[in-house]
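TICKET: design request
STATUS: open
ATTACHED STRUCTURE:
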């Protein structure tokens, strides 16, 4: 199967994170050579043979049925997001459509209209591999004011949201609890890989981050999975200081993989006042909002 190494790595990582006591198996004080459950223990809990489970983990079995994947998910105590991820990794290669390297992404007309409507909010539109396809003026000023605002216009120069978090000093300083934000990026990337295991751009992104960021490599090895939907972050902005924003991620129905990421603040709060001040910094000399940057 196309995701053999990913499926095997996921099973191995999650098996290593469970102890016998976690699943009702006594260890009786014995010294164990490996961390977590043994293969035969997990196979017993899932009701499959040890040899079959070993083939799945080593990537030599050609197929895993939904029933077997459900049994493994129960044995590994996976949450709903992780269970869905396991099923995605277990899908056979013959059930997937062949993927070609995609052409540079661009906004559709309706996406551009929606972004214009949301121009008063900090908004970022991300592509399939989390490149910034467009942002509102306030979105740029809030998250990446040190970057050329027109960079999303040029596919080769587009910022990448994951790279910003792990490789950009400004972004690391922006988030008060950087580790929580970084973990959210990693678990969301895991979910994306499960949905698009043959995506060459995602594979290239993960390879680059693994090589350049020890923090990413460590977090990635844990195989945690959780799509980003809603999260609240405390920011330390270089212009307006402290503010708290709620990030909401919306999928675009007509553009597979495109995400609208909008940030809001509590009305009447100190953060709302700070965001109002920051909005002034995102205005042009004529007092009107700067153009929304994206590939036209």
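STATUS: resolved
RESOLUTION: sequence designed for all positions
ATTACHED SEQUENCE:
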């Amino acid at each position: 199967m196309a995701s053999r190494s990913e499926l095997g790595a996921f099973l191995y990582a999650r098996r290593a994170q469970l102890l016998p006591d976690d699943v009702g198996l006594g260890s009786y004080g014995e010294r164990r050579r490996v961390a977590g459950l043994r293969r035969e223990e997990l196979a017993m809990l899932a009701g499959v043979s040890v040899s079959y489970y070993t083939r799945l983990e080593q990537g030599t079995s050609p197929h895993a049925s939904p029933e077997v994947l459900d049994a493994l998910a129960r044995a590994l105590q996976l949450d709903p997001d992780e269970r869905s991820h396991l099923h995605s990794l277990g899908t056979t290669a013959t059930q997937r459509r062949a993927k070609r390297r995609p052409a540079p992404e661009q906004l559709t007309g309706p996406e551009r209209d929606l972004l214009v409507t949301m121009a008063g909010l900090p908004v970022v539109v991300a592509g399939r591999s989390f490149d910034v396809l467009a942002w509102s003026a306030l979105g740029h000023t809030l998250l990446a004011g040190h970057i050329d605002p027109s960079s999303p216009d040029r596919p080769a120069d587009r910022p990448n949201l994951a790279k910003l978090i792990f490789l950009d000093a400004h972004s690391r300083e922006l988030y008060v609890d950087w580790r929580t934000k970084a973990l959210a990026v990693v678990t969301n990337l895991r979910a994306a890989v499960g949905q698009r295991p043959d995506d060459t751009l995602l594979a290239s992104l993960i390879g680059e981050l693994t090589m350049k960021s020890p923090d990413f490599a460590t977090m990635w090895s844990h195989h945690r999975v959780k799509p980003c939907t809603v999260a609240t972050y405390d920011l330390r902005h270089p212009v307006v200081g402290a503010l708290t924003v709620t990030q909401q991620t919306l999928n675009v129905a007509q553009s597979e993989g495109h995400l609208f990421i909008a940030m809001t603040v509590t009305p009447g709060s100190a953060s709302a006042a700070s965001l109002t001040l920051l909005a002034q910094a995102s205005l042009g000399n004529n007092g009107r909002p700067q153009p929304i940057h994206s590939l036209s």
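CLOSING REMARK: Residues 285-291 have pLDDT under 50 and may be disordered. The beta strands are 123-126, 132-135, 230-237, 241-251, 259-264, 293-294.
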